[in-house]
Write a structure and sequence with these properties.
Elements (H helix, E strand, L loop, with lengths): L1 H20 L7 H18 L1 H8 L7 E2 L2 E7 L4 E3 L23 H12 L1 E9 L6 E10 L5 E8 L6
Antiparallel strand pairs: 1-2, 2-3, 2-6, 4-5, 5-6
Helix pairs in contact: 2-3
């Protein structure tokens, strides 16, 4: 009986260690929608300046698994991006394209402006990587504001 308990303890330790060494778990589309709506609610309750600090924090609540929330205005200006904060220094990102020449930020702005919410597909590197991966990003216009938030999932790493 004692040998069985020791075996179970060792097996559990190896399982936990194996999970810690594995690739980070991938975000799901459902998680993305929830986080984006939470970020929009944060903007309405805390104000834009406080929301920019919280959303732009790489260790904050809007960075999880392999995803993160970003905040933009309808002119294509990035206001908060926790993984690539240098994007916030540009006047706008409307001329930036992905490796397939898709003007992804134009699609983001048009989705927010014309529909209010929706998914945009494009290529973007995973956090910590340089090579682009196929990504689907959910865009949601903050009600009553000329702002929108977005977050995405990488197609190759989706859990469903």
């Amino acid at each position: 009986m004692k040998a069985v308990k020791i075996f179970c303890a060792i097996a559990a330790s190896l399982l936990i260690a194996g999970n810690a060494l594995a690739e980070p778990e991938s975000a799901t589309k459902d998680e993305v929608v929830v986080k984006v709506h939470e970020a929009a609610a944060l903007i309405n309750t805390k104000g834009v300046d406080e929301a920019i600090k919280i959303i732009g924090d790489p260790k904050g609540p809007f960075v999880w698994k392999d995803s993160y929330v970003f905040l933009m205005d309808l002119n294509g200006k990035m206001l908060a991006h926790p993984i690539q904060p240098e994007l916030t220094k540009e006047k706008h990102l409307l001329l930036m394209t992905d490796p397939t020449d898709k003007a992804l930020f134009v699609h983001f702005v048009n989705t927010a402006r014309l529909v209010g919410h929706g998914w945009v597909e494009y290529m973007w590197p995973k956090p910590g990587k340089n090579t682009p991966s196929k990504k689907l990003t959910y865009i949601y216009r903050v009600p009553g504001k000329d702002l929108f938030v977005g977050a995405g999932v990488y197609v190759g790493g989706m859990m469903y």
